[in-house]
Amino acid sequence: MATIRFSDRPDVEPFWRDIVAGVVRHVSVSGPVQHWVESRQGSVRIRHAARWTPLEISFVPIPADPGATTRSFLMPDTAITVPPPVLVPEVPVRPQPVPMPIPYIPEVPIRRSETNAAIRSIARPLDLPQSWIDGQIDADVELDGAKRNALDELMKRSTARVQTMTVLTTLDPSPADLVRQYGEALYARITPAHTPSDPARQYIHDSPAAMAGRLLVARRETIFPLPRSSRAPCRPPATSR
Fold this sequence. Notes:
By secondary structure, the protein is an alpha+beta fold. It contains 7 helices and 4 strands, in the order H-E-E-E-E-H-H-H-H-H-H. The protein starts with 12 loop residues before the first helix and ends in a 23-residue tail after the last helix.
């Protein structure tokens, strides 16, 4: 609300009479605002100039704000009570990091000569023939395909071979068979004209002590060797004159 003072000049008198008569009762005010108060009525946002300084006031028949009117001491008090300003703390806005652009790296094509050299380096340690190498190069096979083909070739070459083995199991002779074979071997030793059988032939050169020891083992009998002190001394046989 502002108080306006009119001049006493005669040319101002007609305007004063129109204002008093209510013909012109709207004003247009302009000036800087020192403080704004924001509020809402439903979904409508409203801003009130809570503190401002009028620099220019004009009487107009059609105002921009219909509520900007004149008043006198005879008019009811229609002043608008402006609520105290509500200070809203400002939330600092963090600057968003700017993503770094990804540099474009052009793909360098692999020359065919390098691929052929790599195929040869794969085939030689695996002992693949030259015909296999030539076939891969002539077909323009890429390096990954050549690796798979080399693995397939190795799988073909490593086919499992089935081998047949004959296992002969030799059973130990029984004590009765040993006695018979020993007897035949001893008979062949004193009778050169006798031809022993194959089982008895292996015992021809064995001593009687070895034959007796093997026979006791076959009978599962325990053998205790005699100490040297209890052995009878060997004496040469007596000769007759």
